[in-house]
Amino acid sequence: DSGVTQTPKHLITATGQRVTLRCSPRSGDLSVYWYQQSLDQGLQFLIQYYNGEERAKGNILERFSAQQFPDLHSELNLSSLELGDSALYFCASSVDAGRITGELFFGEGSRLTVL
Amino acid sequence: GESVGLHLPTLSVQEGDNSIINCAYSNSASDYFIWYKQESGKGPQFIIDIRSNMDKRQGQRVTVLLNKTVKHLSLQIAATQPGDSAVYFCAENLPDNNNDMRFGAGTRLTVKP
Description:
heterodimer, A: mainly beta, about 50% strand, globular, B: about 110 residues, mainly beta, six-stranded mixed beta sheet, five-stranded antiparallel beta sheet, 11 strands
């Protein structure tokens, strides 16, 4: 158990809809990272938050957004969903915000299926 | 563009044998690398990391080798066990890209009893 909690584990929705994925980082970790894992793209970094502020952005679509709340949990919002958004979405956390200098702790992921 | 890749998408080994998983990276500016293990239904789990100022780093039953000349990274697993069956990813971090770890496609390791 990594200590990172993600909900929901599975989600099925229709094209055009909007969903919210939730992540609670490990106790004491201030950074939260979101990754998308699809069969043809592997693990893609989406975005990182540190202590409530956006710190780094990767290949995140404009239809997607995220935020980190004062209690450090994070939410990833996916809107106007398309079939291609079907994927596993992972949250990871780490203690600090700077250069990744060690372990990222990953949650077990949220599997999104868009029909 | 530059990317992280893997030579072999699948690897099957006998229990007790040593496993070697390879990774090729194309960006010579990458200075930090991590190997992750992902078991079915779980998130990636950190195995070992190495910085570009090192050629070799050892952990418990695992060794990572870095050859900067040919931009090659390998993960060696000694005395492979059934519990080692998983997908293994290498990831690189560019010095000017603080938090964007670029992951390879992954290699599936299957350990036969």
